[in-house]
Design a protein that fits this description.
Blueprint: E1 34-43, H1 47-63, E2 68-78, E3 81-90, H2 93-100, H3 113-116, E4 123-128
Antiparallel strand pairs: 1-3, 1-4, 2-3
Length: 150
């Protein structure tokens, strides 16, 4: 059964009422959450060293900045290359600027990055988080040898 949607119709073609709040989807009036995603590469032989460095010089500092809502470091090693992504979550672009500076669209290089980075230049992107379906109040479910003793 087909149904056309007319201008001003309160339902979308999927049958969802306009303005309906779906589980895990924040209403337009809810505070925004911005994801900043950085990507860089190093040699696989330097992956462990760079993981420790990136955690100490980047992730820990990001996590301590007011307006930061969380940070994750991802790593994939294969074919002689280690790809890294750092996903950080922010209340606002002003909060991101506390870390990245006024020109927040550019990569903020760490002091030792030139010793590690290979391949394409590191890149950064910003996204509005439209769905956040993480369990509320859950404890961390991973272990990370980099964080032991930290």
């Amino acid at each position: 059964m087909s149904r056309s949607t007319k201008l001003g119709d309160a339902r979308s073609p999927g049958g969802i009422e306009a303005g309906a709040i779906l589980p895990g989807i924040a209403p337009a009036s809810a505070p925004r959450l911005i994801a900043r995603i950085w990507h860089g590469q190093t040699l696989a032989s330097k992956a462990e060293d760079y993981t420790k460095y990136l955690y100490e010089a980047g992730v820990r500092k990001i996590a301590a900045i007011p307006g930061n809502r969380g940070v994750q470091m991802l790593r994939m090693v294969g074919d002689g290359v280690a790809d890294f992504q750092v996903l950080s979550y922010w209340d606002s672009f002003d909060a991101i600027k506390l870390f990245a500076g006024d020109d927040y669209q550019k990569v903020r290089h760490l002091p030792k990055d030139p010793e590690y980075m290979i391949g394409k230049k590191p890149a950064v992107q910003h996204f509005e988080v439209t769905v956040n379906h993480w369990p509320q109040g859950s404890e961390s479910r991973h272990s990370n040898s980099t964080q032991e003793g930290a």
